[in-house]
Design brief:
The protein is an alpha/beta fold. The chain folds into two domains: 1-217, Rossmann fold (3-Layer(aba) Sandwich), CATH 3.40.50; 221-314, Helicase, Ruva Protein, domain 3 (Orthogonal Bundle). Helix content is 46%, strand content 15%. It has 14 helices and eleven strands. It has helices spanning 5-24, 29-40, 55-66, 81-85, 119-122, 126-131, 166-169, 183-191, 195-199, 208-220, 225-240, 250-266, 274-285, 300-310, and strands spanning 45-48, 70-74, 86-91, 96-101, 108-112, 133-136, 139-142, 148-153, 174-176, 244-246, 290-291. The strands form four sheets. A five-stranded parallel sheet has the order 2-5-8-1-9. The protein has a two-stranded antiparallel sheet with strand order 3-4. Strands 6-7 form a two-stranded antiparallel ribbon. β6 (133-136) and β7 (139-142) form a beta hairpin. α1 runs antiparallel to α3, α1 (5-24) crosses α10 (208-220) and α13 packs across α14 (300-310). The longest helix has 20 residues, at 5-24. It is globular, with a radius of gyration of 20 Å. Mean pLDDT is 89; it is low at 293-298.
Length: 314
């Protein structure tokens, strides 16, 4: 099955964006690919890692290369929901209140260090991330299309952090870790210029209409019945295994299938293969699973390896 010419052109531009991003964020090709897959699947991305490994750079880089309206929100303990959503201000000239949108009304929103804000402020994102709208002062206001939240999270052992509740974690389609770069990439970073200086002159390479076309193309990627059975078996295992306190929800299953579709599209295929499911399994499900009290927290890869080892490949 051949792809339409418009879709092929959009994919070429997307690969070009991926290639340029790889020259800025060195040694993180898989993480960049996962971030793009998350965007194509109309999800939101959580990046959990130590400060200084490139989380903010990744968000700024994607916004620049994809030509998306960008806003950065620095989460702190005194941040209020109105600081994110916006507020109405009385104007004397018109003698009425006028709503001033907050930074959440952007196409790509970086929620930086999201777990440094209180649960009340974190909850202000729930409606926006799930329904792509916000209700302020009794009025519902739509958010831009596309709407993509990239949140960064510091490790929970650091001072001044508030753990994200399960309902908040479940709004993120994927969670990834950047980690330290490999030795060669880090030496190249040390020799090179500041990453912000390299991002500044970049021009968008993927028009907005092509991004929307690719998002629509993801929904048309074929998922066969054996792949559905494979995903269902993975979900069922998490609900029956004593290793987990609670299993994956149907929403997690839908997210897994959407992510596998996006990964297949990035790989130039019109149908989902088992390796597409395997590629996105860890980022899609690890943050949604609660481990037993006797067990140490497992890494994303360990959870994915365990699930894949227990379920036969179709």
């Amino acid at each position: 099955m051949t792809q339409p010419p418009e879709q092929n052109a959009a994919l070429r531009h997307l690969y070009q964006a991926l290639e340029q991003a790889g020259t800025i964020l060195l040694g993180k090709e898989r993480e960049l690919r996962l971030a793009l897959a998350c965007l194509l699947a109309r999800g939101h991305l959580l990046i959990e890692d130590l400060p200084g490994v490139g989380k903010t750079t990744l968000a700024h880089l994607l916004a620049r290369l994809l030509g998306l309206g960008y806003a950065r929100i620095q989460f702190t303990s005194d941040l209020l929901p109105a600081d994110i959503l916006g507020t109405s201000i009385y104007e004397r000239r018109s003698e009425r209140f006028r709503f001033h949108p907050g930074p959440l009304f952007a196409q790509l929103v970086l929620a930086d260090e999201i777990n440094r804000a209180t649960p009340k402020t974190q909850s202000a994102l729930l409606e926006a991330m799930e329904e792509r709208q916000v209700t302020v002062e009794g009025e519902t206001r739509p958010l831009p299309d596309p709407f993509f939240v990239i949140a960064t999270q510091n490790p929970s052992f650091q001072i001044g952090t508030f753990p994200l509740p399960e309902s908040q974690l479940d709004r993120f389609l994927m969670r990834i870790h950047l980690g330290y770069p490999d030795p060669d990439s880090e030496k190249a970073l040390l020799r090179g210029r500041d990453r912000r200086e390299l991002i500044a002159p970049l021009a968008p390479v993927l028009p907005l209409e092509e991004l929307r076309l690719l998002q629509a193309a993801v929904e048309a990627i074929h998922v066969s019945e054996p792949i559905i059975e494979y995903c269902f078996a993975l979900l069922t295992l998490t609900r029956r295994s004593p290793r987990f306190l609670q299993g994956l929800s149907p929403r997690a299953g839908l997210g897994l299938v959407r992510s596998a579709r996006a990964w297949a599209l990035l790989s130039g295929r019109n149908a989902v293969y088992p390796e597409d499911v395997q590629a996105v399994l860890g980022p899609c499900v690890a943050h949604r699973l609660s481990l037993g009290k006797e067990q140490d927290p497992a890494a994303q890869g360990e959870i994915a390896d365990y699930l894949l080892s227990q379920v036969p490949v179709p």
